[in-house]
Automatic annotation (TrEMBL):
GO CC annotations, alphabetized: mitochondrion
Record-annotated GST C-terminal domain positions: 95-217
Family the UniProt entry places it in: Belongs to the GST superfamily. Zeta family.
Entry keywords, A to Z: Transferase
Lineage: superkingdom: Eukaryota
Keyword Cytoplasm: no
SUPFAM superfamilies on file: GST C-terminal domain-like, Thioredoxin-like
Domain GST N-terminal per the UniProt entry, residue ranges: 2-88
A molecular-function term among this protein's GO annotations: glutathione transferase activity
Protein name (Swiss-Prot/TrEMBL): Putative glutathione S-transferase
InterPro entries, sorted: Glutathione-S-Trfase_C-like, Glutathione-S-Trfase_C_sf, Glutathione_S-Trfase, Glutathione_S-Trfase_N, GST_C, GST_Zeta, GST_Zeta_N, Thioredoxin-like_sf
Native source species: Tolypocladium ophioglossoides (strain CBS 100239) (Snaketongue truffleclub)
GO biological process, one term: glutathione metabolic process
Amino acid sequence: MANYTLYSYFRSSCSARLRIILNLKGISYNLVPVNLLKGEQLSESHRALNPSASVPLLVSRRPRDDGFKIGQSVAALEFLEEVHPETPILPPASDAKARAVVRTLVAIVCADTQPVTNLRIMRRVRALGGSAEEWNKELMTDGLRAYEAVAKDHAGKYSFGDGITMADACLLPAAWTAERFGVDLGAFPVISRVVGNLNQHEAVKKAHYFNQPDTPENLRAQ
C-alpha cells in the first residue's frame, strides 16, 4: 500500500512539482485526479480536505502521520525532504547560503510568478476585459528573467550544480506552461539548458502532464 495520496490535476504546475519529487525519491503514491476546469476543487468535499480549494494536496498514509494533509506544494516538498532525506533536493544543512539560493529560486517561481498566472487569476483578468494570455506571457517572462539572473551563477547540469533540487521541480512545470503561452525559452540560455536536461530524466518523464491518468487522449504522449 502506498504511503501517500496525491490529489492532482494533470496540467497543474504545482501538482507536477510533487509528482517530479515523489518520482525522483522513489516514493510510491496513489494519484487522485481533480478536474480544475470542471471546478471539482471548489466542491465541499474537496474544501474539507484542502481549505485552499486547490491542488496539489498531499496526504500521508504513514502510520505515524494518521492522514496528515499538506495543501501547499512547497510545504509538501519540504516535508518530503525532511522525512525522506534520501536523494536530497536541498544542499546540505551545513551550507546555509546554498540552501538560501535554492529557496530563492523556488520563491521566484512559487511566490512571484505562478500565483499571478494561475487559472483563478486568468479568469479574473478575462472578466475585467483583459487578455489572460498576454497577461501570463508578460508575467511569466518577467519571472523567468529573474530566475535566469540568479541561476546563471550557480547552475551546472541543473539549476544549482549537478543535482536536481526543489528549484528544478518548480522551474520545469513553469517552463512547460510558459511555452504554452508563447514564451521563448531560447531567450534564457541557462534555463533552456537546465530544462533540456530535466526533460530527459525518467522521474520527469513519468511526471509530465502528457503521462497522467487524467490526461485527455488528444494530449497523451504517443
